[in-house]
Design brief:
The chain is α/β, with parallel strands linked by helices and 299 residues long. It folds into 3 domains: 93 residues, Winged helix-like DNA-binding domain superfamily/Winged helix DNA-binding domain (Arc Repressor Mutant, subunit A, Orthogonal Bundle); 104 residues, Periplasmic binding protein-like II (D-Maltodextrin-Binding Protein, domain 2); 98 residues, D-Maltodextrin-Binding Protein, domain 2. Helix content is 42%, strand content 21%. The protein contains 11 helices and 11 strands. Helix 5 crosses helix 11. It starts with 5 loop residues before the first helix and ends in a 5-residue tail after the last helix.
Length: 299
């Protein structure tokens, strides 16, 4: 494809919808098109690009290597188109377009998070902005902000990645927890053998904080590794594992008597949560408007 035309953007949007829905059949309702029409448009797009984007048939829907690369490139392209529309609408004092926001998982119960207040204020201003929210792991969110698939992401980012701007918003405290089915539930937090009993337990660690979790517990290895807080809580609640959880997230089970925080004075941390954006590139109008509500909300 040497030149991009309006028809190509339409075909690419169809392709994006098919991928997000997981196949031709699943995309019919969203696109309001028959499966034969969707198949015809995909064939037209593949002819325009000169590559096969997906495999379809009895084996199900699956992107080819070219399809995966095209999907990521299309995300960046459509985001750039949305930014253009947003910036030109701002010339007439009206902000419209899409805001691509990334968030780390399971922060909804954190009263210290400024996100809910920011969204209320942002929407109340009457902007004609469609919000596209993506939940992911810290490294994944950083990658998506770097390559332009997200405007902004909010979460705890243990490392600092070149090319990103980090603005601290608040801190999230966590602690070590066990279930009422675990032997440590009735343990004395001041007992001299507590560390020994903890290190002998099955420890579940968060993948992006694994070394930190193990160091604090003076343990050599984890018995399980997870990539999100819900999975962490599930294993701890089983009674087979102990591990760290955000205090706000664990509170419901502590109140019901299903979880206990182990030695709070000894095992706890306050993790900084940041908003990350790309450094050294012009910010689209929709992002500047969102930041204008987000950053003052933390002061």
């Amino acid at each position: 494809m040497k030149q991009l035309q309006d028809v190509d953007l339409k075909l690419l949007r169809v392709f994006m919808t098919i991928v997000k829905c997981g196949g031709f059949s699943a995309a019919q309702a969203t696109l309001n098109m028959s499966q034969s029409s969707i198949s015809e448009q995909m064939t037209n797009l593949e002819t325009r690009l000169g590559v096969t984007l997906c495999e379809r048939g009895r084996g199900g829907f699956r992107l080819t290597e070219h399809g995966s690369a095209t999907f990521e490139a299309t995300q960046r392209l459509l985001m750039a188109v949305d930014n253009f529309c947003t910036d030109t609408s701002a010339l007439k004092q009206h902000i419209s377009g899409k805001l691509y926001l990334g968030i780390i998982d399971n922060t909804i119960s954190d009263a210290d998070s400024p996100l809910a207040r920011t969204l209320r204020q942002f929407v109340a201003r009457g902007h004609d902005v469609h919000l596209d929210v993506y939940i992911g792991m810290p490294a994944e969110l950083e990658e998506r902000v770097l390559d332009g698939r997200l405007h902004i992401a909010i979460g705890h980012f243990p490392l600092r990645v070149a090319g990103l701007e980090y603005s601290q918003l608040y801190e999230e405290p966590d602690g070590l927890f066990c279930s009422r089915y675990h032997p440590l539930f009735a343990a004395n937090d001041n007992a001299p053998e507590l560390f020994e009993r903890i290190s002998a337990s099955h420890i579940v660690a968060r993948g992006y904080l694994q070394q930190r979790d193990l160091q604090q517990l003076q343990a050599h290895k984890a018995a399980a590794t997870v990539d999100n807080v819900e999975a962490q809580a599930m294993l701890i609640l089983s009674g087979a594992y102990i591990g760290f959880l955000p205090l706000h997230y664990a509170a419901r089970w502590v109140e019901s008597g299903d979880l206990r925080q182990i030695a709070p004075a000894r095992f706890h941390s306050d993790w900084p949560f940041n908003a990350i954006t790309r450094r050294g590139v012009p910010q689209p109008t929709v992002l500047r408007a969102f930041l204008a509500d987000l950053l003052p909300a933390v002061n």
